[in-house]
Amino acid sequence: MWRDIAFQHTITPTGQGTRGMWMKNKYLHRLYGENRVFRKSVMNITAWMDFAMLGGHKDGETINRLRRVRRERESLLSGNEAFMVNAVARAQSCLPGDMAEVGVYQGCSARLISEASGGRPLHLFDTFEGLPCPEKGEAGHLREKQYNSPLDRVKAYLADRPNIQFHPGFFPATAAGMENTRFSFVHLDVDLKSSTRACLDFFYPRLVPGGAIMTHDYSYLDGVREAFAEFTGGHPMQLIELPTSQAILIRTDTVNDSVAQGLAGVSNWEKTLTEPV
Ligand SMILES: C[S@@+](CC[C@H](N)C(=O)[O-])C[C@H]1O[C@@H](n2cnc3c(N)ncnc32)[C@H](O)[C@@H]1O
User: What's the number of CA atoms in the CB half-sphere (13 Å) around residue 255?
Assistant: First the structure.
């Protein structure tokens, strides 16, 4: 099974060597989460710097679009993170399968994914009432109902995106009935360990070959990182940690199967060339 297949990357345990990692400071996280003015100022300044750098060498139209979307609603994504969400969703749109996001907040990242999805169905999961109850270790810097954004406001913002389906309520309960859906791209931005783990349990087995789960906050929030470590159960998997707070888990075991089938197909095809007609 997929858990037994050896890949190149092992997820490092949490809590090791965090000295000097000022961006993981719990008080800073709490201030960031609870003080909207502080959060917006930090996000706007860093996004401005990111886009100024990206604008120096990336496609101008893409950068202007990302800037526009980030201005329309409050987002927890930095400029570089918005760029990555857009780029990975666009690349994954070549694959069959639906797309999903868990952790929508005001809909900024959802709009980016929708615009990059090539019209693939995009399922949006959120309580639309903010975070569920954090675990003990998370309660110091995250709180219940944080990032509350009412469903009707998010629906109004995304009303022009016909490929979006809303699944309001507590995930994974809201995924009931979707057991047979397959996904090419899933974006997680749920902050909590329990939510991240529930998402991995549900989505990973439902990824198409080459499908990807991208998470926000992998390096900011210990709970998110721990959920990935527990999910993989110590088995090395294809996880790519980005220089932003994000990480991407790619389902490559089924790719190996498909590549094997593909290669068999190629050699059969080559055989037909050498066989007499
Ligand atoms: C940080 S916000 C998402 C930010 C958003 N992606 C953006 O770009 O601005 C986290 C969201 O996760 C949602 N959430 C966390 N755990 C959840 C769960 N188990 N079920 C549904 N929603 C959840 C919260 O309601 C909240 O809106």
Answer: 11
